[in-house]
Amino acid sequence: FTMVGVIGGNAVCQRILGDLGFDIWDSITRWVRVINPSALESLLGREEPSNVRSLEETLVSQGALTHPKPTGGRSTTLRVVDWSEDAAFRWDQAWKERIAPCIVGTWRDAEYLRWRYLEHPRFDYVLRLAEDSSSGALRGLLVYRIEAVRDRLEKVIRVVEFLCDEAAGSLLSSLLIEEGDA
User: Fold this and answer.
1) Angle CA(142)–CA(117)–CA(12) in degrees, nearest 5?
2) Is 169 helix (H, G, I), strand (E, B) or coil?
């Protein structure tokens, strides 16, 4: 892997990752994808129409409003499926066989995902999976929640899990953008 991200990594975690050859950074900038420039301008307190146009032109010139599309041969067989008990069983297989052996971090089997996200006492999380429709294999997991900004109409999509191969990542990120457009 080129990067491993950890929230609240303690000294033991940092030592392990350091021993594996990773550079340790105390913090990284959050990744932000603007979906609605007008809502961003409003959220930032810039409500003049010229600012919205200027922001949108800047974002377009930087390619920040380009919607990713699934690419490559096999990716055309990918589809998004909702979390279900059948999907949970298949996720455990994918997690144990393909994903967990490649990462260092929290064990994200179905039991953990249920406890951490589906049974969360305060937040409503959405769990989506990328499935190869030709084989039924799960190739990615996306967990997010729609977060209302206090005393505002704007909302933010907060992504908390994004585990997948490249083609599944393209599909799941497109889903996020569609959710933001809705």
Assistant:
1) 85
2) helix
What token pair was written down for 121? Answer: 């006492």
> Which residues, including other chains, have CB under 8 Å from residue 94's CB and lie 6 or more apart?
137, 138, 139
Give one word for 137, left, alpha or beta, with left for phi > 0 and alpha for psi -120 to 50. Answer: beta
Ranges of residues in the chain with a pLDDT under 70 are 1-3, 28-37, 39-76, 182
Give pTM, 2 decimals.
0.68
Question: How distant, in Å, are the alpha carbons of 16, 37, 43, 155 from that of 150?
Answer: 38, 19, 11, 9
Residue 139, helix vs strand vs coil = strand
Q: Between helices 37-44 and 49-61, what is the axis angle to 10°?
A: 120
Chain centre distance of CA 176? 8
